[in-house]
């Protein structure tokens, strides 16, 4: 049997996951500086199994605008190179037979604005997902009250709590977006 606490905890958990997913998505948006997070989640076909790059290679940033990928298995370098190209990250890997070097080019003003638009779209998708969680939770709370499992006062308190959580998480999304925009527009 579903309880009011279950609904509130599940809503908070789902909203937390929305925020975490947005943060993960933002790591893939590149800025003008090198970051291992740009390539670490690229999926590489490794012995017929899609594998995250970070699991089959060491990823380092020896310089501000260079990423070096050092495969634990040198025979995987061509597959890693193809996977990075296929990931459409706007970078070109250079394979010298031992390691793969990725030079991060300077971002033009136009490209920075495009990336900012992408970040805004991602943030809006997160806001919509959070609002959908609110709507679903509210519906479940109303069903509990309709089935006489909770009182009207408990329903109203729970609906208020869900709204407060929604407002909090949407504010967090806005804060994360503002920080990412500032990072992308910094020269």
What does this structure look like?
By secondary structure, this protein is an alpha+beta fold. It is built from five helices and six strands. Strands 3-4-6-5 form a four-stranded antiparallel sheet. Strands 1-2 form a two-stranded antiparallel ribbon. It is elongated, with a radius of gyration of 22 Å. The relative contact order is 0.16.
Low-confidence runs of at least 5 consecutive residues: none
Structural class: alpha+beta
Number of strands: 6
**H/E series, N to C?**
HEEHEEHEEHH
Q: What is the assembly state of the chains in this entry?
A: single chain
Percent of residues in helices comes to: 55-70%
What strand line-up does the widest sheet have? 3-4-6-5
Q: Tell me the strand percentage band.
A: 5-15%
Distance between the termini: 55 Å
Largest beta-sheet characterization = 4 strands, antiparallel
Number of helices: 5
Write down the Rg. 22 Å
Shape: elongated
Mean pLDDT: 88
Q: Summary?
A:
The protein has 187 residues and is an alpha+beta fold. 59% of the residues lie in helices and 15% in strands.
Supply database-style keywords.
187 residues, 5 helices, alpha+beta
Would you spell out the secondary-structure blueprint of this structure?
Elements: H1 4-27, E1 43-46, E2 49-52, H2 53-56, E3 57-63, E4 66-71, H3 77-86, E5 93-95, E6 100-103, H4 109-146, H5 152-185
Antiparallel strand pairs: 1-2, 3-4, 4-6, 5-6
């Amino acid at each position: 049997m579903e309880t009011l606490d279950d609904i509130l905890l599940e809503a908070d958990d789902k909203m937390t996951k929305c925020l975490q997913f947005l943060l993960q998505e933002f790591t893939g948006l590149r800025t003008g500086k090198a970051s291992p997070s740009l390539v670490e989640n690229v999926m590489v076909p490794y012995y017929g199994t899609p594998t995250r790059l970070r699991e089959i290679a060491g990823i380092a940033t020896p310089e501000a605008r260079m990423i070096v990928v050092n495969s634990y298995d040198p025979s995987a370098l061509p597959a890693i190179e193809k996977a990075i190209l296929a990931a459409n990250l706007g970078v070109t890997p250079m394979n010298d037979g031992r390691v793969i070097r990725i030079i991060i080019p300077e971002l033009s003003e136009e490209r920075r604005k495009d990336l900012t638009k992408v970040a805004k779209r991602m943030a809006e998708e997160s806001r919509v997902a959070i609002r959908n969680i609110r709507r679903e939770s509210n519906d479940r709370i109303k069903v509990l009250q309709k089935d006489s499992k909770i009182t009207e006062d408990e329903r109203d308190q729970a609906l208020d709590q869900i709204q407060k959580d929604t407002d909090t998480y949407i504010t967090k999304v806005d804060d994360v977006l503002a920080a990412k925009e500032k990072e992308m527009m910094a020269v």
